[in-house]
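Protein in question kept in full:
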Amino acid sequence: MNFELPFIPERPAKPRNSGLTMMMDKGLSLSETEHFIEANKELTDIVKFGFGTAYVTNNLEEKIALYRQNGIRPYFGGTLFEAFYARNKVEDYLRLVDKYQLDLVEISDGSIIIEHDEKCKLIHRMAKDRTVLSEVGSKDSGILISPNRWIKMMTTELQAGSWKVIAEGREAGNVGVFRPNGTAHTMLINMIIAKVKPEDILWEAPQKNQQVWFVRLFGANVNLGNIAPNEVIPLECLRLGLRGDTFFDFLPKDYAERLKQVESDTEEEVSE
């Protein structure tokens, strides 16, 4: 950091297992990628080439090399895996991953239905040679999954070898663990974390209000994903209590209470 400031939450250094930030690359140019890395490499753990963008992104090999050289782990979005799976081309997908020297893969079934035992077999197989992220939840808002089903899928996928399970939220943050208006499914999330360790989950949270909600619930070192390139630094400020939304969350209780009392007294004086 550029200077010292007390009462800032401790953030583990990279490479880390908690407090992950996953940026969603939806087609940055090579120069944009260079600029992103210059500003954000210490704050970004992994980068997802969103949905099927890897198929059409220019300078893909060069971008992957840039991310890897700067301590950021890139991977192809789960929708691309599903596109290969739907065409019975899983072996081709694995050859593609190896061609680009990616050590991180995502296995999802948000756009298609994969029998869950089959999905776990794929996770187990790929986890032998790679780090696996598996995603739970549908991209279709009309498909509702019971909390017990969420818990069972997350648990069995972690047992099969997933490093983290991704809680579906999409790039818009309006499905999966979120309601159509973007607010969190509080009861669902509370039931999930009663059975699954929060540090084993990466929550897709593209909207600021969602990021605030998770930081307040889990603290600075919650795993968050689908973060826009220009939102990585603002998210880090949320994690550290350096934005108004989380300003009081990491201050000592007596400091926070004193400041809030001053604020309350000032409001009373203005009203009078």
Remarks:
- The mean pLDDT is 92.
- The domain at 21-240 is CATH 3.20.20.70 (TIM Barrel).
